[in-house]
């Protein structure tokens, strides 16, 4: 007893008991009014305890569940199958399950998407005693996921339509087969990069300007997809129109440069343009290159050399530097035009390069078809059969005399 007549020990114990009761009451309220549903079940799944939050989510009364239903009884048909095949075995093996997405059937029959976290408690001997689960309303999350899925599906459908459009457009730009030119052997090949699903910017074209007067174009528009295909179409048809009114290939390339600059696209391109002319003495070729690899002349003795002078890329500057070079074509000589997918084909850090190309041209000089298909086969073999970039090849060859 203190001087004031109070038993401090008794008063302290009473105060402690008061706060313990208050804390127990707060814990009970926290459990019952928690922001997520709580329920406890036997190891077999029979509900033995629920909080008010879960009852509100599910729309049941407490007496409807405790000792009467299992957790699996509250799920949709698909959810019950998942419970038996995945959820319950996971709890038994791992002792817990996290963020399991299920559909709960409310008392009024409506479906409530939920996320469930569960733990399986065991006694000192390892026997399962109780399953405790936290249940979260996932309605908004499921709606957000559905919107994401729909957005993804719309994007994929849009991309598929764009790819189909670009591929269809590109197919109109690549001749299905090279035209037949009297007294000339001509062949061309085109191989898109990878599995061919992505539309590239490589193109070639062969068209007649007049009697004994032909043009051969090969080019590479930067980038891939619809935009590149549009510029490719623009380049191809501009060159066709320009070559009719302009005798020099360099002039036709300059006209294309003007069109590209007015078009407003940020796509530039490289083009090699060849004009083949026939007279009484045979064939001659006038070559102009706008940033494109120079064509190779393959002589009758199978030696090779490039023809022409390098020029400016198109679609960049107002006044590109372009040159014309004319060479006679003798019997058994060939001109081979190609895109950089040939020489820049890679195997690890190694390029196919000009040396391999020249050797391949010498090995396959027997015909235009042998030149295009033989070089293509060697380039693909160098890359283990997978083209890292688009590849286009065009070969024109003067047949032997008398053939």
List the helices and strands and how they pair.
Layout: H1 8-32, E1 37-41, E2 47-50, H2 52-58, H3 62-65, H4 77-94, E3 96-105, E4 111-122, E5 128-137, H5 139-173, E6 185-191, E7 202-210, E8 213-221, H6 225-245, H7 249-263, E9 269-279, E10 282-290, E11 296-298, E12 304-306, E13 325-329, E14 334-338, H8 340-343, E15 346-347, E16 350-351, H9 353-363, H10 368-382, E17 391-397
Antiparallel strand pairs: 1-2, 1-5, 3-4, 4-5, 6-17, 7-8, 8-9, 9-10, 10-13, 11-12, 11-14, 14-17, 15-16
Describe the protein in words.
It is a single chain. It is built from 10 helices and 17 strands. It has 403 residues and is α+β, with helices and mostly antiparallel strands. The protein folds into 2 domains: 33-137, 2-Layer Sandwich (Beta-Lactamase), CATH 3.30.450.20; 175-397, Phosphatase 2c, domain 1 (4-Layer Sandwich). The strands form 4 sheets. Strands 2-1-5-4-3 form a 5-stranded antiparallel β-sheet, sandwiched between helices. It has a 5-stranded antiparallel β-sheet with strand order 6-17-14-11-12. α5 (139-173) runs parallel beside α6 (225-245), α6 crosses α7 (249-263) and α9 (353-363) packs across α10 (368-382). The longest helix has 35 residues, at 139-173. The N and C termini lie far apart (133 Å).
């Amino acid at each position: 007893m203190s001087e004031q007549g109070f038993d401090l020990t008794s008063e302290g114990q009473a105060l402690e008991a008061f706060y313990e009761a208050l804390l127990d009451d707060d814990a009970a309220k926290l459990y019952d009014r928690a922001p997520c549903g709580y329920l406890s079940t036997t190891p077999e799944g029979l509900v033995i305890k629920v909080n008010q939050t879960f009852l509100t989510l599910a729309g049941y009364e407490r007496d409807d569940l405790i000792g009467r239903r299992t957790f699996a009884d509250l799920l949709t048909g698909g959810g019950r199958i998942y419970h038996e095949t995945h959820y319950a075995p996971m709890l038994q093996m791992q002792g817990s399950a996290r963020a399991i997405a299920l559909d709960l059937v409310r008392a009024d029959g409506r479906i409530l998407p939920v996320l469930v976290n569960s733990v399986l408690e065991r006694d000192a001997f390892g026997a399962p005693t109780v399953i405790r689960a936290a249940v979260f309303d996932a309605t908004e999350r499921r709606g957000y996921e559905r919107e994401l899925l729909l957005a993804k599906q719309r994007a994929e459908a849009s991309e598929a339509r764009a790819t189909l459009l670009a591929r269809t457009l590109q197919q109109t730009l690549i001749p299905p087969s090279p035209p037949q030119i009297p007294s000339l052997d001509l062949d061309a090949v085109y191989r898109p990069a990878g599995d061919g699903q992505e539309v590239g910017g490589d193109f070639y074209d062969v068209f007649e300007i007049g009697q004994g007067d032909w043009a051969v174009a090969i080019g590479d528009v930067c980038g891939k997809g619809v935009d590149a295909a549009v510029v490719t179409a623009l380049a191809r048809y501009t060159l066709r129109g320009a070559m009719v009114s302009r005798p020099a290939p360099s002039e036709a390339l300059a006209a294309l440069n003007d069109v590209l600059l007015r078009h407003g696209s940020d796509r530039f391109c490289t083009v090699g343009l060849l004009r083949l002319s026939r007279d009484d003495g045979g064939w001659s070729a006038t070559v102009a290159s706008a940033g494109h690899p120079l064509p190779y002349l393959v002589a009758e003795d199978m030696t090779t050399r490039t023809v022409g002078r390098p020029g400016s890329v198109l679609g960049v500057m107002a006044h590109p530097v372009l040159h014309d070079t004319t060479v006679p074509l003798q019997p058994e000589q060939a001109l081979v035009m190609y895109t950089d997918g040939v020489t820049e084909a890679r195997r690890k850090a190694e390029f196919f390069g000009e040396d391999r190309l020249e050797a391949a041209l010498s090995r396959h000089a027997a015909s235009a078809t042998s030149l295009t298909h033989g070089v293509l086969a060697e380039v693909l073999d160098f890359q283990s059969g997978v083209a890292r970039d688009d590849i286009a090849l065009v070969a024109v060859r003067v047949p032997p005399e008398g053939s």
